[in-house]
Amino acid sequence: MASAALADIVRYCTRRLRPDAFTDYDGAVNGLQFENRGRVSRIAAAVDASFTTVRMAVGAGADLLVVHHGLFWGRTVPWTGRRAELLRELVGHDLAVYSQHLPLDGHPTLGNAAQLARALGLRNLRPFFAGRGGEWLGVQSSLTRPMPRPELARRLAKVLGADPVVLPGGSDVCRRIGICTGGAGSELAQARREGVDTFITGEGPHWTLALAEDLGVNALYGGHYATETFGVKALAAELSARFRIPWLFLDHPSGL
Fold first, then answer.
1. What mean pLDDT is predicted for residues 91-97?
2. What topology is assigned to 4-100+229-248 in CATH?
């Protein structure tokens, strides 16, 4: 069975995704989060690193799990109960875990936003939605042929597999669409400041309906999980082609 060195895969990902260029959340811990014995013969990709997805990866025979949300988002000690079981799964089945958060949101080709935009048929993509360190976390597209808001919602539903929540705060016709996946709904004001009339993200708080109306901007919430399946798939597919090892996607939706 073909295999590759874990160290080579990690180096490639670091060069490709440039995590040091992003000011991420402290708990994100971008990069290799759990090291196996050093070889990879099958890659599993998932949105989240959890007990369930680790068990799914083990069942699929993977020795590398590539995720968007890693193992260390909050306080993770002591390692007892289910957390201890997770550690035993990783050690016992020699499963490495590699995670990239914001770098896999904003990458211009592999990123969640760029991949979702292309799936929607948007072209001429430009950087959008500046992060805390000034890095770009999304993409935007100025349409040469404006799109009715219901048509955009239909396209998004087809791509994501479920109807989005639509906050119709702006025009019935979309001319400049911005995408930043995940939980960016509370940042509608920033999206509007950056010039879009329609903002696609994963989720937002209840009060953003009133904010969308005040700002005169449309917001479409496609689901945090659903909008962030794209980056890990794209990265795993590229690693598979580069290192000639198989990959698969582990679908474990949160419904959120």
1. 98
2. 3.40.1390
